Amino acid sequence: MLFYDSPNPAPNPRRVRIFAAEKGIELPSQEVSIPKREQKAPEYLGKNPRGQTPILELDDGTVIAESVAIMRYLEALHPEPAMFGTTPKEIAAIEMWSRRVEMILMSAVGAVWVNTHPFTAALPGRNAEWGEANRPRVADAFRFFDESLKNFEYLAGPDFSVADILLLTTADFADFVGCGMPDDCENLRGWHERVSARPSSKA
Ligand SMILES: N[C@@H](CCC(=O)N[C@@H](CS)C(=O)NCC(=O)O)C(=O)O
């Protein structure tokens, strides 16, 4: 298999790298440069018509796009340590928190990134007003996660899971974009220190 990867600050490929590091999986990789727009080259579009990274190409030519789908595939191949939960309650909690990170936080950070950041200035259809309107939504989302982390060591409960990987990569990307977690989010900051201390976070 071949993992088509893009370096930091791209948050979605990083999800998979952290996930693989947690499981001790070596992923043969090929870099796709986003600044050079290699993700829009015809050969790459033939693999992923969305023109985005990451993708995982299997030896039989199957292409898996979407970082969560790639992680689910790797989880099925390497079930230990379980990152998507094992009991029905764990599985549901991890899914709930993962979806919240994607829908509440990532969507707002993405709107700030795409509509306000100098690195995306050349994108068509930018709407700076909409980008700015999303900054308070990002802060609200961080405060929501801060509140929930009052009771648990990790986002979905007592154990580290894929939900933490989604939140970590999104929080670090938000910081890069210039809409990082508010100062008053103490639980979130403690959580961020804990997960950033894991060797996988260096991925
Ligand atoms: N939902 C997709 C999002 C993929 C995505 O947005 N990838 C970014 C890199 S983090 C990308 O390729 N951006 C360049 C582009 O959209 O042209 C996933 O989870 O894999």
Automatic annotation (TrEMBL):
InterPro entries: Glutathione-S-Trfase_C-like, Glutathione-S-Trfase_C_sf, Glutathione_S-Trfase, Glutathione_S-Trfase_N, GST_C, Gtt2-like_N, Thioredoxin-like_sf. It comes from the Bacteria. Keywords: Transferase. SUPFAM superfamilies: GST C-terminal domain-like, Thioredoxin-like. GO terms for molecular function: transferase activity. Residues 87-203 form the GST C-terminal domain. Coiled coil: none annotated. Residues 1-82 form the GST N-terminal domain. Pfam families: GST_C (PF00043), GST_N_2 (PF13409). PANTHER family: GLUTATHIONE S-TRANSFERASE GSTA, GLUTATHIONE S-TRANSFERASE-RELATED. This is Glutathione S-transferase. It comes from Altererythrobacter xiamenensis.
